[in-house]
Write the structure tokens for this entry.
Amino acid sequence: MLSWLVDPWTWGAWMWRGMLSVTLVAVACAVLGVFLYLRRMSLVADALAHVALPGIVAAFLISGSLSAPVMLFGAALTGLLATVGIETLSRRPNIRPDAAIGIVFTAMFAAGVILLSTRVQDAHIDTHCLLFGDVLGVSDRSIWLLAFVTPLVLVLVAVFYRWLSASSFDPGFAKSLGIPVAAVHYGLMTAVSLTTVASFEAVGAILVIALIIVPAATAHRLSDRLHLMLAFAVAHGVVSATVGMYVAIWIDSSAAGAIVVTGGLIYAAVFLFGPRHGLVFSPGRHCGQGLGPEASSINALEG
Amino acid sequence: MNAIVAIDTSIYAQRAAEFFSFRYAFALEALGASILVGAICALVGTFLVLRGMSLIGDATGHATLPGVCVAFLLVGAKSMGALLAGALVSALAAALLIGVISRGPRTRPDAAIGIVLSVFFGFGIVLLSYIQNSPTGAQSGLGGFLFGNAAGISRDQLIALLATSLGLGALVGVFYRPLKLTVFDEGFARSIGIPTSLVQMALLSALAVCVVISIQAVGVVLVAAMLIIPPSAALFLSKRLGHVLLFAMLVGAVSGALGAFLSYMAEGVATGPAMVLVAAALFLGALFFGPRGGVVPSWVRRASSARAIAARRGG
Amino acid sequence: MSEAVLCVTDLTVYYGDELALDSVGFSLTGGKLIGVVGPNGAGKSTMIKAIVGSILPNRGKVEVFGSTAKRALRRITYVPQRGSVDWDFPVTVRDVVAQGRYAHLGLFRRFTTVDRDLVERSLELVGLVQLAERQIGELSGGQQQRVFLARALAQQGDIYLMDEPFAGVDAATESAIVEVLRSLRDEGKTVLVVHHDLSTLREYFEELVLINRKLIAHGPTDKVFTPDLLQRTYGGKLAVFSNKDTTLVSA
């Protein structure tokens, strides 16, 4: 009866390789996604994921190599370029920030697609794989890259947890404490770029966005504290990665797509039936409602 | 790098001659469709950009993919009408869903866009890979929807595209005043009795229609660029809405024409990315030299006013 | 006059081409409650942010106890406007107050019992002990403002800069906050408050800073709270009725 759960593992190494890589991708994306989401930068993540493509392709064209450091460097560079470009454009009075995002990443992505389709046809870059991922065929390089990037992301987030949490919640106050808010911002952006590159082979440039945004959005509706939100987001990522892999195997479809759809369904379930903020079973308690009479706490203040 | 430059240029000359002779009907149709798409996306996109809804266009574009695939699975054959109807349904569903999610407690409007975009697109990819892995679907040609293939547009489709574009254009013309007021000052528009939520709905519907008729030429992934970039360029050329619309459509149409041409010239280049790159180049031109807030003109103005102040202080 | 606690010189801030703050300078002594007054867009928040280092001034210098060292500047605590954060952020009241200790703990030092006691004492002082485990979005506006105040108290600074702490707050909370501020002053701290309600200025503050992009006046409330200076601060937007001992104003 459980054979459909167990069998895929016996069909060859690709199953555990695939499972390992999507889990690593899901964990790194979920953790970074929480901070991006809370900083209202979900769509910057969208942009960064897209611009990693021209970064990788350009790095390949210039160096002729597809080694991990070259790819990471290329993507980090275009990521930084896009971040700076978006911020510079947003500062001009006749461009709104959302339009700035849209302009920068679509243009850079288009350039990447064109380079990919004209210049690197016979290299070992598979267009379809870069865009939509190929979990079951991930290379050793990609697994090693993930095995390096995901722990790195976790360690960095743990080390800079106070800076990240304080500057995400209240950047003005964080600055007054002497926290280097701008450095934290660019550090986070770089981490997102690196994670995107590491995730490319497994889930592709476009669907990685879902693994960044959806877990955080789900977790936000379930948790009142940041570390719980991180835990819920990671759980969401891992569960949808696992379930999505099985679904992809059963119906013979894109694994990345199946993972994203599973994650989306979990989000929809939490949105509708979540214990506290769900639309359907919400017991009438919403944000912003005062709790109890103001007077009681004032009494405590004076007493 | 030198290899890239040293490509035999005579092939290009030959291809260019071929393109402009319009010997092949599909070249003409591709050109016409790209120009139309560029212009109509710019028209609708101007209102989106001004209302701060740029990225809703992106989400709507990506969200058409599952609709196309579901329609293909239901109809079983590649009937363009059915595919586009499917695209329209899922684009509208996505636009509405973004509104529903952003209004809930504990959500972020930007995340709502990202969620809808990526989950719809993920669903589309699942369906697309399922179709392409099945024996009948391998030749479906649905892959062309990702980045657009203007050369695949038939004469009938071009006529339908023209009719829809004219219809959208006429609607914008008729409802120009309520649209304009809602874009610039929603509160005021509501106070004088304009049903702004109806205008919003109409705008989203127009967006869905516009995206759907454009995806054959530019593809679902990059249609947002044609909605956002030409209007953003036009905002550096004029401050009056009417002029902005005209400039945006002009930029869009030129990008469409040049994009179709470049895509014809270079083997393997999809129409969508080519159009987007041309639009981006035009945007850069407007950003630097546009008379309304362009980099160079405002730099010149600041320098001359600094000189004037210095002269006044000196004198 | 005792030694200057906070000394601001030539503070100038541009937003793009626009001059938001024009060469503002003043110096404050300890043990005072000081009000900052000026019309909307006068650069009050900008000035506070520039002093605490939340924005970088284009020109000017901030000295704390005669030093511009970073360590000295940490003795300034900042209470931002309530609208500056997302109140649906997943963080409890106690977590926010504990952030005040980050100034001293940096990234790695653990919370000691001393830190924990300070957090609890600050929660007590503002009357939020019962709500300490609540997510901050569940609080009323007045309670949220008190969370910010408690965070500042936990930071244990010597100078408090508060950006409109009374905006959108009910009368009971306002008087409770004022009580806390008075006890801070009595401990010898310097408390600078951006304030909008001209009718309570005299009651709350012994010193005023009037600004409208430039410094209009700085001095004891009795000397500075005059129709003439207010008129200059607010331009034509103010009606001033005055006779011998009362000044009635409406902005």
